[in-house]
Amino acid sequence: MFNRILVCLDGSGLSEQIMPHTKELARQFGSRLILLQVLQVPSSLAAASAQGAEGVIEEEMKRLAYEAKQYLEGIAAPLRETGLEVETVTIEGSPGDAIVEYAATSGIDLIAIVTHGRKNLGRLVFGSVADHVMRHSSIPVLSKKPKEKKE
Predict the structure, then answer these.
(1) Residue 115 contacts by C-beta under 8 Å, 6 or more apart in sequence?
(2) Close Cβ partners of 63 (under 8 Å, ≥ 6 residues apart)
(3) What is the pLDDT of residues 55-89, one digit of tens each?
(4) Intra-chain end-to-end CA distance of the chain, in Å
(5) Are 36 and 91 in contact (CB under 8 A)?
(6) Using CA atoms, how far apart are residues 129 and 134, in angstroms rounded to an integer?
(7) Among 25, 62, 119, 127, which residue's CB has the most CB atoms within a 10 Å radius?
(8) What is the mean pLDDT of the chain?
(9) 138 pLDDT band (50/70/90 cuts)?
(10) Segments making up each domain of the chain, as ranges
(11) Which listed CATH number (3.10.290.10, 3.40.50.1370, 3.40.50.800, 3.40.50.620) goes with 4-144?
């Protein structure tokens, strides 16, 4: 039923709270997990680009891509040790649009994503990647509101 499950991660512990659910689904259905992180050009770099500093942006995006790959591989390795099929993917773009496009063109059967649970003004100001994905993808979406970690 779910051959390929796209797990959307943003590098935060909150986004990782979807992992137990996707891990169990992958076990039950024999699914492949695709761990995805979308890299967005930081606004400070976008401003530098407008001033002709493309080389700076390219180097910074390479660094971000390397860090994202290391992060995803750190999550993937223990999953692989349990016998699950896992691949890692990093792409550049606006997170909501990038997730929808990747899922549509990569044979994804289920998108798994955590919503950070912003309400009212927070959603208006910051938007919601999970909300965007649910509104713009025809692929089923598993979403979870994370528990805030107490410090």
Answers:
(1) 128, 130, 131, 143, 144, 145, 146
(2) none
(3) 777 888 899 999 999 999 999 999 999 999 999 99
(4) 39
(5) yes
(6) 9
(7) 25
(8) 87
(9) very high
(10) 4-144
(11) 3.40.50.620
Cβ burial of 93 (10 Å; 0-12, 13-18, 19+) is: middle
Residues belonging to the chain: 151
CA gap 1, 120 in Å, rounded: 36
For residue range 110-120, list pLDDT tens digits in order: 999 998 755 55
Given a contact cutoff of 8 angstroms between Cβ atoms, the answer to whether 111 and 141 are in contact is yes
Amino acid in the structure at residue 99: I
Its pTM stands at 0.86
Q: In sequence order, what DSSP letters do the residues of 137-151 get, joined into one string? A: -SS-EEEEPPPPPP-
Share of the chain above pLDDT 70, in %: 82
